[in-house]
Amino acid sequence: MKYMLLIYGSTDTQNACTVEDWMAYDKEVQEAGIFVTGHSLADLTTATTVRVDDSGERTVTDGPFAETREVLGGYYVIDVPDLDVALDWAARCPGARDGGTVEVRPVAEF
Amino acid sequence: MDERAAGTRASVEAVFREERGRLLAALVHRFGDLDLAEDVASEAVEAALVHWPVEGVPARPGAWLLTTARRKAVDRLRRDQAYAARLALLAAEAERTGGAVPEEADGGLPDERLRLFFTCAHPALPAADRGALTLRYLAGLTTQEVARAYLVPNATMAQRLVRAKKKIREARIPFRVPEPDELPGRLPGVLQAVYSIFTEGYAASSGPLLQRLDLAEEAVRLGRILHRLLPAEREVTGLLALMLLVHARRDARTGPDGELVLLDAQDRGRWDRDMIAEGETLAVAALTGGPPGPYGVQAAIAALHDEAADAASTDWPQVVALYDVLLALNPSPVVALNRAVAVAMRDGPAAGLALLDELAGEPRLRAYHPWVAARAELLHRLGRDAEAADAYRRALELAGTEPERSHLRRRLAAVAPPER
Fold first, then answer.
1. In this complex, do B93 and A87 lie within 8 Å of one another by their Cβ atoms?
2. Which residue of A3, B58, B249, B287 has the lowest C-beta tally within 10 Å?
3. What is the pLDDT of residues B223-243, one digit of tens each?
4. In chain A, which residue ranges form alpha helices assigned H by DSSP?
5. Which pairing describes strands B105-106 and B109-110: parallel, antiparallel, or unpaired?
6. What does B109-159 look like in DSSP terms, one character per residue?
7. How many interchain CB pairs under 8 A, A with B?
8. Rounded distance, CA B385 to CA B365, Å?
């Protein structure tokens, strides 16, 4: 079963995790054989939002879709047997610490 | 339906009620799907209603029901290949995760209920639904009965259960017993689900009745099952002890007209001494062999009340000391409130009132009528009746059940007699 771990950082607090912490976690995910895909996203200041209205008109605006304190900073998709295992991997993720959160969502299968 | 058929239905239903949780848990473990388990369990009961009147009730009714239900599940999976493929995938992955507990044969029916307890109280499910799921799938209540337990319309409860089941299925919340190292994190959720059923039965949050004894009894029954499944877990023992030590006072807790009778005014001759004795033995076990947990400490407090001949001779210093321990384990304003009331009994109303007033800033207590009523009572004991009357009026606005309100009205009348 595939789960996406959506890693949110807080704009209020600084995540104290180091690059080494992330590299160690990434290595664990790879070596456990559960890695499907995953990326770290570039800084929020580089975000651009696109909307297309009913007439097909495109609107492009600078910045993220919504002003929030929680910013999506990256994601993993992992393939594990059940939610408990997914939650364990989420809890080990450096992004879950220091005011950050990891949202765990099953990937819909059709 | 003729009389004989009605009698059979009653005996089948009696068996099924006892075996339902066990049957469902065994089927869920085997097929990994709560809906399928429910369906085939019901079909097996229908089959029993057809066969048992003719062939007699089998020697091991539970095993008969399980075998029949399994056969029906296999039939269904043969008919529905897509469903079967999905379940086969589940089963294969369950193999990969590995089973957790050794199966225990009891009357031919393996006991997989512990898995189901942990699924129903899984932290990924809404806290408000965990008690309902536990009542539905482990106590074997119907959806209508669960709705009645929580005083919500049938359709509302059915919807909540369907939504919870959907999450279990689609997010794949597993049916498994957590590993020993996960247990400290997961067991409190299961205990909380059972205790929430008990407290709703013991002190209903709303409605015409103060106590709903059938619900409290279901909680005690669930506590016993859990204690049998996890005999070495001291907090499980503590929870069962606590429920028994409180439930022992059920008959004295309401007066002839259903009105609330507080602990200090209860006729202690009507307390259930056998239940107290059982609870005390369990409380001792819960507090032996390691640091105390919150349920064990609460059981010890309940035992001190149960042992005392009256309120005055209660060992209040010991009660306060136990509340200190509890407060350290579980720093909650409600525990602090109970401690303040015990301090008032030990050191007098002024000391208790000072502690209650320290809690005035707690947002959780401001609309909590026991806090307001406790202040009223201590103000009255200090002779500040005008303030006591105001507090009783405020508590009256907040109390949820009629027996509580009528108790508060009587207290109010005592401190502020209505003018003629």
1. no
2. B58
3. 999 999 999 999 999 999 999
4. 19-31, 83-92
5. antiparallel
6. EE--HHHHHHHHT-TTS-HHHHHHHHHHHTS---HHHHHHHTT--HHHHHH
7. 29
8. 22
Q: Which is higher by pLDDT, B209 or B65?
A: B65
Instruction: With a cut of 50, list the residues of chain A below it in pLDDT.
Output: none
Q: Enumerate the H helices of A32-96 as residue ranges.
A: 83-92
* Enclosing H/E stretch for B91: helix B81-97
Q: Which residues of B touch A (CB under 8 A)?
A: 93-94, 96-97, 122, 124, 170-174, 176, 178
CB of B389 closer than 8 Å to CB of B416: yes
Chain B environment of A1 (Cβ under 8 Å): 93, 172
- Give yes or no for residue B1 having a pLDDT over 60: no
pLDDT at B102 over 60: no
Distance from CA of A10 to the nearest CA of B (A): 22
Is the model more confident about B393 or about B95? B393
Whole-number pLDDT of residue B364 = 83
Amino acid in position B284: V
Domain B1-97 matching CATH 1.10.1740: the answer reads: yes
Query: How is chain A split into domains, by residue range?
Result: 2-106
> What CATH code is assigned to A2-106?
3.30.70.1060
Tell me which of B95-104, B129-138, B141-150 is least confident. B95-104
pLDDT at B344: 96
Burial of residue A54 (number of CB atoms within 10 Å: 0-12, 13-18, 19+): exposed
Chain A, window 31-50: residues with a beta carbon less than 8 angstroms from a chain B beta carbon: none
Q: Give yes or no for A91 touching B (CB within 8 A).
A: no
Q: Which residue has the tokens 């029949």?
A: B68
* B173: chain A residues, CB-CB within 8 Å: 82-84
Cβ–Cβ below 8 Å for A87 and B124:
yes
- B172 with A83: Cβ contact below 8 A: yes
Spans of all domains in chain B: 1-97, 319-420
ipTM passes above 0.90: no
Smallest CA–CA separation between B231 and chain A, in Å? 25
Quick one: closest CA in B to A79, which residue? Answer: B93
Kindly state the tokens that stand for A30.
């790879």
- Check A81 against B176: CB less than 8 A apart: no
**Residue with structure tokens 């606005």?**
B397
pTM: 0.86
